[in-house]
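--- STAGE predict ---
source: upstream dedup step, 1 unique chain passed
mode: sequence only
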Amino acid sequence: MSHPLDIVCDESGAEGERLVGGNSDVFTHAAVRMDAASAAACVGELRVRAPTPATEYNACHVLRGKHRAALLWLLGPDGPVLGKVRVCVTDKLFYVVGKIAGLLQEDHAPRLGLDPRARPTAVTLYREGPRAFGPERWTALLDSFNYLLRAKNGQGVTTSVEDTFRLVDALRGAGGQAGEIMEALWRARPRVAAFRERLMADPYVFPALDPLIPAIAGAVRFWSADGPVTVVHDRQTTLTDERIAQLGQLLGGRMAGLRLVDSELDERVQIADVMAGVARRIALDALAGRGDPALTTLIRPYVDPASVWGDERSGDLLIPGEVISR
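--- STAGE serialize ---
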């Protein structure tokens, strides 16, 4: 009987459930399907083309301007990783907006990722909210819901349903589609309050707002088309034994196991780190309207079409097919 194949993963831009006002607006997660010898050869070639004395190779080394030729080689059609890497790209602000839109579903419950039924509302709010409410009130709304939907507010911040809905009340008169969504959210206040109570009384085993575990689940679903896979992941405090067991149950046998490793000791993880970091930099630049056309084109074949993205302009350039939300 054959052993399950490994998919080796790492992330870039992870800040847990802090999605608003953090260090990066984009989270990426790369899943690599390569054997150890191929990964070692790839890292060895990168060290020739983009040298560094560091013992562990990572994205910052190949992202330096002087090493652009090495980056073009890595991502190019004749490079060593095409067809062997899948990257999930998440716009953190859109992820929060998707969670807000999900609260409008009458049967809303904690779930991995975003509720696909809420996507049209999420896209409308994401694209219309900043203009309708103004930048300051828009950011305040997202920040308030970010804290409200966390199992633990953290950092000494306390956000109540009353605090959050004071903002909703002020925004529901904004008019247009964004104002209509705020009106619907205002009417859903009892449902939101009940959801918050459940979250505090019995926190869901998966953090409601952390995009890491949905990204892992998506990678497993993709790479397990030919049979169960074992996930090999760079060390992450989010991935507790309880959550790993729950994820295995959720994936219905597609995941044979998940083990955490030291990236310095596994060059496959270093490839995942490089691809996640490169994809995040390219996605951030595209989102800010300063994308590099050559790099955006080259990263596109690696990007998961089910990435969580709401910006139409950059999404059309960055993500294959229709931009949809996991």
